[in-house]
Predict the structure.
Amino acid sequence: MSEIRVIKIKQSVLANNDARAQKLRGELKQHGVFLLNVMSSPGAGKTTLLKNIINRLKGEFRIGVMEADMDADVDGKEIASSTGVKTIQLNTSGECHLDAKMTSEGVEALGYDDLDLIILENIGNLVCPAEFDTGATASMVLLSIPEGDDKPLKYPLMFTKGNFFVFTKMDTRIVFDFDVEKASKRILALNPDAKFFPVSAKTDEGIAELVEYLRKRINTYKAE
Amino acid sequence: MSEIRVIKIKQSVLANNDARAQKLRGELKQHGVFLLNVMSSPGAGKTTLLKNIINRLKGEFRIGVMEADMDADVDGKEIASSTGVKTIQLNTSGECHLDAKMTSEGVEALGYDDLDLIILENIGNLVCPAEFDTGATASMVLLSIPEGDDKPLKYPLMFTKGNFFVFTKMDTRIVFDFDVEKASKRILALNPDAKFFPVSAKTDEGIAELVEYLRKRINTYKAE
């Protein structure tokens, strides 16, 4: 009995969430603001990669950052101090994902008017964040070399929902068995339009290509 | 409105879950079976560590394994083929945790009578699995060096709920900044009784100490 009730409630909330996400996506488009949702496991290197990307794009685009954490604020402080861009911290009080309502509240707190790009660093988790449409324009999913190339097999929803994929910590291939081609094929089987960016924030490998891709996507979106 | 309903349902299910977990724990105790719940992020090295531990303990204890995955069976096959112990795969159909009911069903499928130790490899996730008491005798939490020593700050519930903590992939300290002392202090602040085992399944560093600790805990439990 109890399971059936949970599932019903979840579906109802998810339906509400989808409508809310579409509304937010429309509002963002109207204001010419690109919202990038960033997802990965804990410790895959989201914050480090974002600092790197933001510092390369902030001369061109007005950037705001929403850092989501269950109840910490370390990443928000780190991003704000190292990039100088407008940053807010969203605390989910233990929830393992952001939904469209929480994302809308964050966007409202940051403000639409003086921004071109909002980056949402989602909770570190390969499961729940993939289940909720945040209303983002695009989703970037990170998979770090130490996690292993089997993750797309074990967390298929995340690798289905992402739009483009960044293999992080490429410099650590010397100590880990991670087959980039195998991982890419596993993601393509779920997500035929997936794009891949192997990077290292330590050596700068691949960062320029990823930044160029983001630049083009944001400019195309704003020009449409 | 919708949030309030979700929270109420969740609390009700959690209360049921706690009762069910206590029941399972009692049944396990009665049968002298130690249930070890193993939790971590995706890719922290649960399967590799478990293979190593099982092969060192299987001469002494009759071991069964429950591999939980959202919808894959790769880890179950890997454990079964490399250790030869009785293994079943639990698929959660997308749920990011096991609750006491699912765990009970798994234990029933494995059978109580011819086992001393059941190992549950939970879903790779630092959030949801910590929210549900599975009914396990003890919980072992892995934190891998590549994930970073800040994880206890960001996922405090997991580091509060675990009973002992294994720092995995210690051989990779050459490429990562991870302060074992800092991580330990952060966990102790949440969990004053925490015990720590820095290990590498690649070099065997620390594995003997961890196995000895498990051996003592299981024997004490069975003798009580």
In short: The interface with chain B takes residues 2, 5-6, 9-10, 12-13, 16, 41-43, 69-72, 74-75, 94, 96, 123-128, 131, 144, 146-148, 150-151, 153-157, 169, 171-172, 174-176 of chain A (CB under 8 Å). Residues 7 and 143 of chain A are 29 Å apart (CA to CA). Confidence is low (pLDDT under 50) at residues 1-10 of chain A. The beta strands of chain A are 34-39, 63-69, 86-91, 117-121, 138-144, 164-168, 195-198.
